[in-house]
């Protein structure tokens, strides 16, 4: 039943219905039934709809069908309307899937099929454009609309709610109302509104009533903020509209919306879409990026702002937000452990990636120097070291982090992170540390270098011990001895058999290689010679007859794979690396040459033209190597005698073997037609350049593009001939890699010759276009038709072909700030490094290979200003990219990067129009250009390659000059505690399985046995000698081993406490015994005591055994106790008598402290050490 007041005239009326479908209208004032109607079906629900001067009854049957009965319409009264009402003509709601409902704002129309609900102002507007429209959950069959909340009942009894705040252009988020879904709902009854609360209602179900109210734990501001986050067209008017609907202050909602959203998402990772929308909202409500970072930091989510912050900083290099980037990276690293369920090594790898990103950022912002300690605590070692190096006061704090937590960090660190920890400890200043802190740090370094077992780390520790020996002599002495032992034990690493200077970086066409500070060979990019367009097809023959087991193709259709820096194992320690287009040469410190690559022309020098997938030894009789050079498809070796060996592609005479030799050489072949020793060699693409001892430059190969230094078109030159320059010029440095070359005189003058074919052809194309334009202009002036290009026109000044007068020798004018120490050439650019640490580049810049951040061509050397804090040491030029290293070992790359040849990842950019700039004429005309299509990615400025760090301090390395004589000198000056500490280190390493395999050379080291002996660890020394003898047959005749063994026999024979059964068994089993020692009476007396032990009798003949047994005398019982009267003991309690320790075996007496144990007699230990020193001094 429903009650309402009629409008004409006003009187109370009751509408009553029953299940039979009868509808009665009762006048409550007169208490009479004034009308009775009959509905088509049984009535379930009756609703009164009043709008302006219209009143209707909405009937709902048990089947869901609905009808509308008009009661009042315009000025017509109830009686007039009902008189004309026919039950069979009741207005039925169509379609049947629609369901009408009443609300305070009008009429709702639920479409159960379309899963939507529409809000109309009245029944008359149904079917037109709705006032609002919302999507509802599937299978919804009842809705209840309020001013701010929409309730929906779906399926049987699932009651859901969603806030809408009067906005229709938003996706509603429905949530199930707990406790309201147990019984089938029958209807909703709205309750009165309460301030700062969402509308509440009563849910009527089959068992009673349920009150639905807003949760106390979720304030209205939180609900409004979450709603605004889902609004796609977020703006300030939307905030005001929501604030008005909630009856809260608009400015307050504006201030609280971002903090509220962050609070609700504390500890969660925002998706890129959500983060982007949140940033848009913050910008709309006028929150600055600085304040936004603070807000994110309040809720521990600031690391999620890192991408946006980097974008802002890169757009403005002077932005104050740069300092916040370090904080965000640190927070990102700290959050890895909490959010990652991976293994510890995996977590360390993630941190390493974060460290690489931060260090690359810091390299571009040299003024940042705060946060070093925090970086170390977050295990960002590379970044922490870089920041600490900029601020000396922070270095001690970083080192103290290593002292306190180094062991814990080391246990879970990946190998690369462990190497960075070593680098951090070695690159920072120790002078501010205390003696105790240095002791702990030295202990860490000794353990870590044993675990890494890298000759580079051993050298670093040796260098540190020398540097700080005056400040911390005791600890540095321990570090020195341990590092020296590792260096001497690794013979393959410290044995120097060549005089080649270190060359740590090199570039090919699309790839690069480097030798890191740890001594690892790292390569990146592509070595299959893939190109957007192939080089001159006439130069590289199509060798289809040669089959390759590698699936390598130079076709431009092959997909490109970016290979970031990764290690390649080479037997030995790499010292020199050279890259060609498809092969790599590596020279180790032991003088061994390795090569691998596609090897189509025998450029690997291994005797065949099949692919060489792994580093393979190149054998030859060239002796000690001074220099290597890898051209694009041929290679050269220069030995210390000034002789040159060539191998690889030779069709253009670039091997310089003379006699019209155009065949490829698959093995290194000596160049015999040289009249003086060679000082340097450099290989290009189809030519080779030599520098003699007298300073002359010799060239051989093809000269089609000026590679031989002449303007003439010399197709092939089979032998080396002098460069056509004045005889008074003395050159000291040469460089070439592709078509053009440079040479530098002793006076600093720079000469270059040759040009890239692409450049020559482009110039030819431009000249022809200009010629055609000139012909057309002249024809227009004369009123004639345009003549053909071949027609003679005497007044035409432009030639048909590009001139060759600038392909030969030309001097490069420059204003360098010092003498050139390094030089390199690429496909169309050059670079030099001066002794002042400056880097200058010039040439083409279409791929940003000059590093100036633009595509402007430079005809003269221009200094590279960025990064500002860098002093350059090395440079190498690839096809269209450049790799350079700073004096502190950092490596940078820039230029073309479609194969990641710059060492950093990058995605292809969209297709851009390239503009080819060429040199303007000398008359001062503007530069011209020709547009070329391009679809490559670039690194526009020098960018740090985090994974590649070099070392240039003492390039020849301490290992190459360090020998056993220096070690012996240092050992003679060490005290007993130092020797014992070193001995304990190696004994612990011997028992540690994790480092035992890595330190296999130390296990057989004779110097380690000497340290054991000098420290009193006789058994350890004997076992060490035994392992050294068993390692190789050469060790048995090693004089140093026999000397140390003789010392061990002397100690065993003359000291009774070294005559235990265990020591004697080891001595007779492992130590080499001479005839003199066999006749030693003391040893003859000791041997029968252990003669029944296995291995003791193996080195004696039968006659020697009988001889010893005949002269053997059983030893007398030694004194094992001392009698002291009881009175003396009682009197000792008053401290009148000092406590002493008496050694029974040697009868030595020394002061003793109660409770402090002693394992060895100090007097005997000093005697042993003095004996060893004396022996070493006399030998």
From TrEMBL:
Annotated region described as Disordered, given as residue ranges: 533-558
Domain of life: Eukaryota
InterPro entries: RCC1/BLIP-II (IPR009091), Reg_chr_condens (IPR000408), Ub_ligase/GEF_domain (IPR051210)
Key words of the record: Repeat
Pfam family, one: RCC1
SUPFAM superfamilies: RCC1/BLIP-II
Repeat region (RCC), residues: 591-641, 642-694, 695-747, 837-888
The protein, known as: Regulator of condensation
Lineage, opening ranks: Eukaryota, Metazoa, Ecdysozoa, Nematoda, Chromadorea
